[in-house]
Design brief:
By secondary structure, the chain is of the alpha+beta class. The chain is built from 20 helices and 22 strands.
């Protein structure tokens, strides 16, 4: 190339393409007057290209034409410039370049532009990839289902948090940025040291258990996953917090349910044995009452003993109610009417309390045992009264509720229509430790002799038995709220007729089957007192043997359900195979629904029963007259 230029101001030769930067010059009209080999190579021209035929406007990208013309004007006015522009190669492809340019002087006059050009395409590609990576990271960071935070490794200062972090902790982003994790109070200095120790050893943290504190100070059980990152010139730590708190709550509910089930099984065993004890006492008392003068002192004392037996039987009912194995006679009932009756009675007795009702109109009916629901309400009322020894306010509210799957699942019930009863007091309240134990049998905060510790346990059992659930919310000094949810039913409540009852003698042969000797002795005596002939069996095997021998002459079998080796159900089925028409009366201290196949059909007499209870049931099954002998049946 033989291009004229001021040798004092311009390079002497083009030189080999060993210089990394392109050097160029063009005149005031934009025609290229000089370019080294590196510069020509950048644009795809050969070393012997005719420079005069190349105009600077042909090399600049269309998008950069306007700013480039302004740049050239500034340089021709005497300014220097550093800029990044996009250029066209000879084949039409593009590349990114960084230019350092200034005026080209000749004899002190500006005759063009001289500049140095560097191909920065790779750098631009790297920057674009970095931006794309950062954008992808930002999207993943924000969309993460787990709480995530960026912190400075050295200080623990929070650089950024995602939206989920705010939802989990209750903080707004601008409340956190710039503060350290320990300053905010997320965790202690000791916990941070453990975190940094694991990070220092492995360069990452993998599932470190950490108790976190939210904006209200509540504990969050988390597992932390972290990794070092370098963003810009900062050493940062990306931390993902997996919130295990819901899982921990579910585990706690599961373990609590297991514990309550185990306690319920124990309570059932105790109740069964205790009912047999009471049955023996009740039997002897019934016999003695039938033999003494009604006006004697002995009769009065025996009557008092019978009352105490009733109290003992009530305790076992409470135990069985907790264990969900008590007698259970349900029908559609109106809870509003039930609440009103109990509130009226309770408010009359506890005048130091202000009792308020808020009962929803058109309350859905529920399928429930009204007697057990009475017990639930009275226990909750008494519990509230004891929490307000100096007076206070007790409010009772009813309402219809539709529970969705999310609301129902934690309580292991089906979603659908429920009736809620809320019992709220303004009493002393309970701390968290007490709340965790209030439904356990025999747990009480009252003084010895004041309470049995069975009231709320029986409430829990009765509600669960009815297919519902109970929740409690309380804080010291802020009162307590119990919410009971019972599944609604379609059938409307109906009136219940009182049953007539009288003691009457009968006749016939009865097979009495019970593994408890005292129960057999007292029951036999009561049956004989009522005029019946009695055959006795101390267990299932003996009962089957007697029935196989004497079945045709037996008018009724009184059959204990819970017996060792061969239980009452097995005996019942064996008898039914011999004579499907045989009348059987089950005798139990627990619930038949829990212990016998309901398809078998049965009548039940619950222990402890008196001679009056026994007489009434036998009248119902056999009638007062001597039953006809069923000779030949069963052969």
């Amino acid at each position: 190339m033989t291009n004229a230029r001021d040798e004092t101001d311009s390079p002497r030769t083009t030189g080999p393409r060993t210089i990394l930067d392109g050097v160029y010059e063009f005149d005031v009209e934009g025609r290229l007057t000089y370019a080294n080999d590196t510069c020509l190579g950048m644009f795809g021209y050969p070393e012997d290209a005719a420079l005069a035929e190349i105009h600077i406007a042909d090399l600049i990208s269309t998008d950069d034409q306007e700013p480039s013309l302004r740049d050239i004007s500034s340089i021709l006015a005497g300014e220097t410039l550093v800029a990044e522009r996009t250029f066209f190669r000879r084949d039409g492809s593009r590349f990114h370049g960084e230019i350092h340019a200034g005026p080209l002087l000749r004899d002190g006059a500006i005759v063009g532009v001289r500049g140095v050009l560097r191909d920065i395409s790779r750098r631009k590609e790297a920057e674009a990839a970095l931006r794309e990576s950062e954008q992808r990271f930002r999207q993943i960071f924000e969309l993460s289902p787990n709480a995530a935070a960026l912190t400075e490794e050295s200080s623990g200062a929070i650089v950024d948090v995602n939206a989920k972090f705010g939802k989990v902790t209750g903080y707004k982003k601008d409340e956190l940025i710039g503060q350290s994790t320990t300053e905010v109070g997320f965790y202690s200095l000791e916990d941070r040291r453990a975190f940094l120790e694991q990070l220092g050893e492995n360069g990452e943290v993998d599932g470190l258990p950490m108790v976190f504190r939210d904006s209200h100070g509540a504990k969050l059980h988390t597992r932390m996953f972290a990794k070092r990152m370098r963003i810009g010139k900062k050493n940062l730590v990306l931390t993902i917090f997996h919130d295990d708190t819901p899982q921990k709550r579910l585990e706690a509910q599961f373990f609590q349910a297991q514990k309550m089930e185990a306690i319920g099984t124990l309570a059932t065993g105790i109740a069964h044995d205790f009912n047999n004890l009471l049955m023996g006492i009740q039997g002897f008392v019934s016999l003695m009452l039938s033999e003494v003068d009604a006006h004697s002192v002995l009769f009065s004392r025996l009557t008092e003993i019978e009352k105490q037996i009733g109290k003992g039987a009530n305790l076992t009912r409470m135990l069985l109610g907790f264990a969900r194995r008590g007698s259970h006679d349900t029908s559609p009932i109106d809870l509003n009417a039930l609440v009103e009756n109990n509130v009226e009675m309770f408010a009359r007795a506890k005048r130091q309390l202000t009792v308020r009702e808020k009962l929803q109109d058109n309350l859905w009916p529920v399928e429930a045992d009204s007697g057990q629901m009475d017990q639930v309400l009275i226990n909750l009322f008494v519990n509230a009264w004891q929490a307000m020894p100096h007076g206070g306010e007790l409010s009772i509210e009813t309402g219809n509720r539709l529970l969705d799957a999310g609301e129902a699942a934690p309580h292991s019930v089906e979603p659908g229509r429920y009736v809620r009863i809320r019992v709220q007091d303004s009493g002393c309240g309970m701390d968290r430790t007490t709340l965790e134990k209030i439904f356990e049998p025999f747990f009480t905060t009252k003084e010895r002799g004041v309470g049995t510790g069975l009231g709320l346990a029986s409430v829990y059992g009765i509600v669960k038995r009815h297919g519902g659930f109970i929740t409690v919310d309380s804080e010291p000094g802020r009162g307590t709220v119990f919410d009971i949810f019972l599944p609604a039913c379609q059938e409307q409540p109906r009136g219940r007729e009182a049953e007539a009852f009288r003691v009457q003698r009968g006749s016939g042969t009865i097979l009495l089957v019970d593994d408890d000797e005292v129960v057999r002795e007292t029951s036999t005596a009561m049956l004989e007192k009522l005029g019946y002939r009695v055959l006795t069996a101390g267990g299932g095997a003996q009962a089957i043997e007697i029935y196989e021998q004497s079945g045709p002459e037996i008018d009724l079998v009184i059959l204990d359900l819970v017996m060792p080796h061969i239980d009452g159900q097995t005996v019942f089925r064996h008898i039914a195979r011999i004579d499907a028409r045989q009348k059987v009366l089950f005798s139990t201290g627990c619930s038949v629904e829990d212990e016998i196949d309901p398809t078998l059909g049965h009548e039940v007499l619950y222990k402890p029963y008196s001679i009056r209870d026994l007489s009434r049931t036998l009248q119902s099954m056999l009638g007062p007259a001597s039953p006809a002998r069923r000779d030949g049946e069963g052969d």
